[in-house]
């Protein structure tokens, strides 16, 4: 294992840290105000300050790091990207979109770059890479247990030069944002085929007749209005050209698998940044306030939380770096077990750290005056997003048992 950061990474880390200090952190109060206004006015527009941050990030050459294998577009290796994604996670609402490295667009851009036709790339990938539009990925359905993607029921039926789409989706991240211009939709083209060959993926532009954005879902009371929420969608006789299919009929499951490996580790990298911010806040708050005659930081139990947080964080970071290094050296398939391990470990560890940071803040930690409660809700969702913990544990245990049977 060789995790030492190379000169390119060290240079980018320095520039990224400068961008955070000079531009991103100072923009947080404005963003908070704009997001609160969105709640009050029931608007799903992305806070305008993010456009300013994007322009500045682009100018500084901090753009599209996630696109492994495409250095011409700014893409880095997974190991190079890991510390940069972590730094962006310290301001989780602002920095990832500022550098055009936010989910779900990153996964969608990977899909288009791997499986898209020249025409699809021109129409959708180019504006996504330029940060001009955003996109969403629609797989989960309200009516079936969607952790098992073979359950998906939305139908995609060929009719001449078109496909006709009918069905429902929910939890579609980013879809409330009016600038989310295209959906990658997974459905069934052949329900009679072998279980993993029934599904296909298709591009559906937002303005297609019959596509209805029904409502935004709430996450423990938060709407995630900073990044376009999570929408319920209804498709009623939605017609798109046959050329909108991604890959061939029956390849949807394979495309979904290819999409999820990098996406899962990117969440982990950013979540480590979330946890670092929480530790910083915990230490600062504990040092500022006095209870029962001494600073809260001098209470043994608080020191225990701070020490445990540091130990857990270092363990998490090392496993993330090992996974990134494996993805770069033996490929996403070869790193499958580690991707699952880090996907399982990260949310539960970061939840633990956030819980302690909230406790140190007293009741204020649960309130809108600090970002901790919203960060907690966001991290909690990662135990479902990209598949629930239990599914990953099952699969990891299966691989482990295989060694001894
Ligand atoms: C904030 C957020 C954003 C999301 N964004 C998107 C998005 O952009 N696009 C999208 O398509 N989806 C998205 N999702 C949906 C997410 O991918 C699904 O919630 C997830 O795949 C689980 O599917 P489900 O909710 O239907 O749970 P179900 O499949 O109904 O599972 C329920 C529970 O059953 C248990 N279970 C299931 N399988 C097993 C097993 N093999 N072993 C043991 N227990 C098991 C688990 O405890 C699981 O939590 C998002 C979810 C959230 C919360």
TrEMBL record:
Subunit note: Homodimer.
Domain Acyl-CoA dehydrogenase/oxidase C-terminal: 250-399
The keyword Metal-binding belongs to this UniProt entry's keyword annotation: no
Name of the protein in its database record: Acyl-CoA dehydrogenase
Cofactor(s) listed in the protein's UniProt record: FAD
InterPro entries found in the cross-reference section: Acyl-CoA_dehydrogenase (IPR050741), Acyl-CoA_Oxase/DH_mid-dom (IPR006091), Acyl-CoA_Oxase/DH_mid-dom_sf (IPR046373), AcylCo_DH-like_C (IPR036250), AcylCo_DH/oxidase_C (IPR009075), AcylCoA_DH/ox_N (IPR013786), AcylCoA_DH/ox_N_sf (IPR037069), AcylCoA_DH/oxidase_NM_dom_sf (IPR009100)
Superkingdom, natural source: Bacteria
Entries under SUPFAM superfamilies matching the protein: Acyl-CoA dehydrogenase C-terminal domain-like, Acyl-CoA dehydrogenase NM domain-like
Pfam families: Acyl-CoA_dh_1 (PF00441), Acyl-CoA_dh_M (PF02770), Acyl-CoA_dh_N (PF02771)
Domain Acyl-CoA oxidase/dehydrogenase middle: 136-238
Gene3D superfamilies in alphabetical order: Acyl-CoA dehydrogenase/oxidase, N-terminal domain, Butyryl-CoA Dehydrogenase, subunit A, domain 2, Butyryl-CoA Dehydrogenase, subunit A, domain 3
Annotated keywords: FAD, Flavoprotein, Oxidoreductase
GO cellular component, as recorded: cytoplasm
A biological process from GO: fatty acid beta-oxidation using acyl-CoA dehydrogenase
Molecular function terms from GO: acyl-CoA dehydrogenase activity; flavin adenine dinucleotide binding
Keyword Flavoprotein carried by entry: yes
Stated family: Belongs to the acyl-CoA dehydrogenase family.
Domain Acyl-CoA dehydrogenase/oxidase N-terminal: 10-132
């Amino acid at each position: 294992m060789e995790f030492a950061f190379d000169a390119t990474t060290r240079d980018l880390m320095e520039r990224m840290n400068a961008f955070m200090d000079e531009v991103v952190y100072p923009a947080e109060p404005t963003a908070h105000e704009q997001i609160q206004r969105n709640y009050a006015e029931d608007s799903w527009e992305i806070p305008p300050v993010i456009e300013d941050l994007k322009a500045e990030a682009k100018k500084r050459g901090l753009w599209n790091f996630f696109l492994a294998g495409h250095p011409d577009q700014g893409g880095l290796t997974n190991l190079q990207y890991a510390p940069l994604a972590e730094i962006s996670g310290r301001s989780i609402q602002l920095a990832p979109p500022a550098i055009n490295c936010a989910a779900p667009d990153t996964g969608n851009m990977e899909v288009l770059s791997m499986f898209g036709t020249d025409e699809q790339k021109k129409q959708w990938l180019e504006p996504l890479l330029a940060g001009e539009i955003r996109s969403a990925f629609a797989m989960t359905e309200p009516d079936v247990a969607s952790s098992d993607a073979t359950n998906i029921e939305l139908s995609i039926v060929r009719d001449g030069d078109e496909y006709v789409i009918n069905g429902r989706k929910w939890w579609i991240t980013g879809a409330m944002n009016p600038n989310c211009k295209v959906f990658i939709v997974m459905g069934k083209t052949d329900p009679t085929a072998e279980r993993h060959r029934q599904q296909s993926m298709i591009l559906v532009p937002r303005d297609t007749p019959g596509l209805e954005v029904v409502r935004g879902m709430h996450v423990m009371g938060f709407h995630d209005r900073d990044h376009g929420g999570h929408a319920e969608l209804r498709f009623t006789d939605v017609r798109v050209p046959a050329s909108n299919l991604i890959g061939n009929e029956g390849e949807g499951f394979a495309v979904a698998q290819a999409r999820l490996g990098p996406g899962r580790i990117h969440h982990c990298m950013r979540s480590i940044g979330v946890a670092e911010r929480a530790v910083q806040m915990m230490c600062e708050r504990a040092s500022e306030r006095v209870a029962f005659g001494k600073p809260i930081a001098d209470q043994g139990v608080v020191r225990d939380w701070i020490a445990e947080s540091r130990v857990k964080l270092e363990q998490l970071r090392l496993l993330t770096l090992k996974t990134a290094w494996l993805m770069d050296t033996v490929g996403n398939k070869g790193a499958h077990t580690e991707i699952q391990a880090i996907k399982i470990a990260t949310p539960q560890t970061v939840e633990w750290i956030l819980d302690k940071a909230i406790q140190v803040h007293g009741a204020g930690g649960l309130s809108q005056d600090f970002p901790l409660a919203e960060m907690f809700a966001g991290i909690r969702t990662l135990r479902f997003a990209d598949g629930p913990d239990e599914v990953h544990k099952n699969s990891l245990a299966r691989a482990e048992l295989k060694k001894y049977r």
